[in-house]
UniProtKB/TrEMBL annotation:
Gene Ontology MF, one: ribonuclease III activity
PROSITE patterns: RNASE_3_2
Top-level taxonomy: Eukaryota, Viridiplantae, Streptophyta, Embryophyta, Tracheophyta
Signal peptide: 1-23
Stretches of the chain forming a coiled coil according to its record: none
Protein name: RNase III domain-containing protein
Species name: Chenopodium quinoa
One record GO biological process: RNA processing
Top-level taxon in the UniProt lineage: Eukaryota
Stretches assigned to the RNase III domain: 46-165
Keywords: RNA-binding, Signal
Length: 188
């Protein structure tokens, strides 16, 4: 008799363990799903941006930083935007010289200036990517100002170069997103 009770107990305990662990697994699934569905708008915007520029970051922190203005955080895109400017200048001079070894320094300087100009090409390219809606700024800063859009735009190329280890990759991304009806079309 005692043995039967013991066996019953053992079976009951087993059932309880099995059902508890099943419940845990369901809980885990639910919480995982919760993490996926509660991704921040900023993370979602960075994912979309990577698709737009056709480059997937290994180190997403680099893109996060590129999309962070100095008014928002000490970890911002200021220094990245300096490297980004160099990359744009290099990309433009390289391409123009490759097309025409006899290009005048005056013309070359002009096309470089046009590609980097805050008020024109740079802000236009940045706005087209929707950077003014992505870049993190302090609550009293207007993210649509050309300087902020440009800073973020330039910083992207530094982020790509650092991520891939090749500034050539950043150059490719630049030509991919740079206005196709821009100065190349006008010059040739
Ligand atoms: C996107 O990048 C991949 C790999 O770098 C390349 O093969 C493809 O042609 C690119 N697509 C566009 C639209 O630039
Ligand atoms: C933000 O800046 C843009 C461009 O300079 C301007 O058109 C817009 O009116 C500004 N918005 C606010 C709320 O000041």
């Amino acid at each position: 008799m005692d043995r039967r009770i013991a066996v019953c107990f053992a079976i009951l305990t087993l059932i309880m363990i099995v059902s508890t662990s099943a419940a845990f697994q369901i809980d885990e699934l639910v919480s995982k799903k919760h993490i996926i569905t509660t991704k921040s708008p900023f993370s979602t915007a960075l994912e979309t941006l990577q698709k737009q520029i056709n480059y997937t970051f290994q180190r997403i922190d680099l893109l996060r930083r590129a999309m962070t203005h100095a008014s928002f955080s000490e970890e911002n895109n200021r220094a990245l935007s300096i490297l980004g400017t160099s990359i744009i200048e290099t990309s433009v001079s390289y391409r123009y010289l490759l097309n025409d070894m006899d290009i005048s320094s005056k013309t070359l300087n002009r096309v470089i200036a046009e590609a980097c100009n805050v008020e024109s090409s740079c802000a236009v390219d940045g706005m087209r990517l929707g950077l003014h809606k992505i870049v993190r700024v302090s609550h009293n800063t207007n993210s649509t100002t050309p300087a902020i859009v440009c800073g973020a735009f330039r910083a992207i190329f530094a982020a790509v170069a650092l991520d891939s280890g090749k500034s050539d990759d950043a150059s490719k991304v630049f030509w991919n997103v740079h206005t196709r009806t821009g100065e190349m079309a006008a010059a040739f």
